[in-house]
């Protein structure tokens, strides 16, 4: 092996340790996304990394990806993935026409919602009320907000800190099932709760 | 009287500082883990709300995990320094711009609604590169 070769090898090894890198992984649902390298050392590039389970050294003009190989992630990387918080979960609760009180059939979902919030440290709860298209738009804005506040009050009564939660009303702007105006629709009369 | 109350209304709008829109919350932290906000240094305890400009900093055995309001999720490993440079999110339209700077250490990401809302709407900067996030799950490592 020539001296040059050794020097090159040493430089490569050093480079491997000090360069930042990107590990692209399959999505949680089994799909595969990509990451574009838009700049390397301040210069624009057009490389797109799309190989699943690949490692790409950053800061080079021509980003080349290499497969992770049979060993896969090292323990540090696997630990880091394990630290990711669980995905947000959403719950839907339903209401009678013009009513602010939950339908009894949604009480089971409320129990599931409470359990989900309780098991998440530092939870963040987004409560959004909706209506169907019966009635005036302004009235529906008010009704949707009241529905959201009713759900928030239920959660506060169950012992959750109000500062974790926000309540907003979207009136008839975001129909779950698109309908014409003035159509009663049980699926659209709802409160959606996202727990993060 | 009416004029006065209008004036008062305008003044109170002007005087109220824009509420720092909530961007994310700390979900978990282990070991030496802090949030640097300006000159302040806050312990990264679960439930702490994060703002744009915050730096998430960990020591030798520190780790922090965070969920953003657009459902993006982060896990930050030991010896890291990660800044939330920009986070503008319109909850109603589910669109926005999100720039994270990984100065040092390791960051695992599952991207959320901002990344889906437009090409390269979510970017990650490292000391020697700029990434446009078009997919959901990846790790960026920036050794010392």
Task: Tell me what you see in this structure.
The complex is a heterodimer of chains A (196) and B (144). By secondary structure, chain A is of the alpha+beta class. Chain A is 29% helix and 23% strand. Chain A has helices at 3-18, 75-82, 107-118, 137-157; strands at 21-24, 35-40, 43-49, 54-57, 65-67, 89-94, 125-129, 165-169, 190-195. In chain A, the strands form three sheets. A four-stranded mixed β-sheet of chain A has the order 6-9-7-8. In chain A, strands 1-4-5 form a three-stranded antiparallel β-sheet, with no helix packed on it. In chain A, strands 2-3 form a two-stranded antiparallel sheet. Chain B has 144 residues and is mostly beta strands. Chain B has two helices and twelve strands. In chain B, strands 1, 2, 3, 4, 5, 6, 7, 8, 9, 10, 11 and 12 form a twelve-stranded mixed β-sheet that branches. Chain B is globular and about 35 Å long. The interface between A and B is large, with 47 and 46 residues.
Strand content of chain A: 15-25%
Query: How many helical elements of chain B?
Result: 2
Determine the structural class of chain A based on helices, strands and strand pairing.
Answer: alpha+beta
For this structure, the quaternary state is heterodimer
Helix share, percent of chain A: 25-40%
- Poorly predicted parts of chain A: 5-17
- Summing up helix and strand content along with how strands pair, one would put the structural category of chain B as mainly beta
State the end-to-end distance of chain A: 57 Å
Biggest interface reads: A-B, 47 and 46 residues
Give the count of helical stretches of chain A. 4
How much is the radius of gyration of chain A in Å?
26 Å
Average pLDDT figure of chain A: 90
Sheet with the most strands, sense and barrel status of chain A:
4 strands, mixed
Largest sheet of chain B: 12 strands, mixed
Write down the overall geometry of chain A. elongated
CA(first)-CA(last) distance of chain B: 64 Å
